[in-house]
Amino acid sequence: MWIFPLFFWLLFSMFNKILMVCVGNICRSPVAEGMLQAFFNENNIVNNTIVESAGIAALVGNAADPFSLEIMTERGVDIQTHRARQLSAELIKEFDLILVMENGHKKHIEQNFSFSRGKVHCLGRWRNEDISDPYQEPREAFVKMANHVEICLQDWIGKFL
Q: Which SMART domains match (predicted)?
């Protein structure tokens, strides 16, 4: 599933807390959170990095979308316990790196929380691409999204080789 694991660890070991953000916190950000956490677990990387997620308009308390759950289970990643939560000033202050799914999310956060500038980045920034929202779309859109999230995480690795 992952390439360049040592470099990935070196990149993300610079950050103690990483927050993945999308809109509802039920489709994209739980997938990104799960993939990143699974990487640490699969590669027996013991560090103090915490990976979590939130939404800018979260469906608070909801589980991850059934398609996200299904696709991640197929990949051997368990996100069953995920519950959506709202992005807040407190969360933004608490996390070292915030990876958003769309440039619009970045703009929204920086406009509403000016102190966040410098720690908010698009997951797809190295491709200049947004991660499409598969909400209420067919399963294939979720597969495409999960593949895109994985590729973009790998891009972050490649930039720090």
A: LMWPc (SM00226)
Cβ contacts of residue 65 below 8 Å, gap of 6+? 26, 27, 134, 135, 142
In whole angstroms, give the CA distance from residue 109 to residue 23: 11
Domain CATH for 24: 3.40.50.2300
Structural domain of 65: 5-158
Average pLDDT over residues 81-102: 97
CB atoms within 10 A of CB 108: 18
CB of 142 within 8 A of CB of 133? no
- How confident is residue 157, by pLDDT bands cut at 50, 70 and 90? low
d(CA 118, CA 97): 9
Flag whether pLDDT at 142 surpasses 60: yes
Report the run of H or E that residue 18 belongs to, with start and end.
strand 17-22
Cβ neighbours of residue 142 under 8 Å, at least 6 residues apart? 27, 65, 67, 68, 70, 71, 134
- Active-site residues: which are they? 22, 28, 133
Residue type, 134: P
Amino acid 72 reads M
Helix (H, G, I), strand (E, B) or coil at 122: strand
